[in-house]
Write a structure and sequence with these properties.
This protein has 9 helices and 10 strands. It is an alpha/beta fold. It has 2 domains: 33 residues, no CATH class; 183 residues, Rossmann fold, CATH 3.40.50. Strand 1 and strand 2 form a beta hairpin.
Length: 219
């Protein structure tokens, strides 16, 4: 253990979210455990890619990032989203526009940020660093209030989100291939609503990308 990490552990209780060992971020072992393994986990209404299962180390890391504000975890998680984007867009040189699913005011207040937008921007930065033409546009807005999705099954989630998103009036999406992005895909209802809203506005996305999926609910 290096001295700064030991000091952080002593003074602040810094620990790896995956295994609990003293660390200011993810330890090397847990970083390897969440290495991206992108695959298409859904095909309706578009192909949806994820780079890992929302379980074990990855689940703990996501919880620490989203719910505990562990900002140091954003970069390794952005690698997962970036890998999913590469899987669904291939090696095409065409510009890619990432469209994050909109976050409710309730969620922004609870977490102090729009975490999906942060994730999308970090992933886009990684992809641009590798030479890809990728931008992020907050093209969608929440058009009406929805209930908390926790505890809802697939049918209730779809009903809860029907008509919940709409295109922002100031957005021009004619200059790139659109990919909807979210952090986790559960039943697919959120992504399906984002795809519906974009398609209804004349901008159908080619695919969707996430960093993780809940296997029992997405297969």
């Amino acid at each position: 253990m290096d001295l700064p990490t030991a000091a952080a552990d002593l003074l602040l209780g810094a620990a790896c979210p995956g295994c609990g060992r003293p660390s200011r971020a993810l330890c090397a072992t847990c970083t390897i455990a969440i290495a991206p393994r992108p695959t298409v986990v859904r095909t309706n209404p578009v192909d949806v890619a994820a780079s890992g299962e929302h379980a074990d180390v990855l689940r703990l890391t996501i919880v620490a990032w989203k719910e505990e504000g562990r900002a140091s975890l954003l970069r390794p998680l952005a690698h997962l989203l970036a890998s999913s984007v590469v899987l669904v867009t291939g090696t095409s040189p065409a510009p890619v526009v990432l469209v994050p699913v909109p976050t409710s005011r309730r969620s922004r207040l609870a977490r102090g940020a729009d975490v999906v937008d942060q994730l999308a921007c970090a992933a886009a930065g990684l992809l641009r660093g590798a030479g890809a033409d990728v931008t992020v546009r907050q093209a969608l807005r929440v058009a009406r209030r929805t209930a908390d999705q926790s505890g809802l099954d697939a049918r209730d989630r779809a009903r809860n989100l029907a008509g919940a998103f709409a295109l922002r009036s100031d957005q021009d999406l004619a200059d790139g291939t659109l990919v909807v992005v979210d952090d986790i895909v559960t039943t697919g209802a959120t992504i399906a609503e984002a795809v519906r809203a974009l398609t209804a506005a004349g901008h159908p996305p080619m695919a969707a990308a996430t960093m993780a999926h809940r296997p029992r609910e997405t297969r």
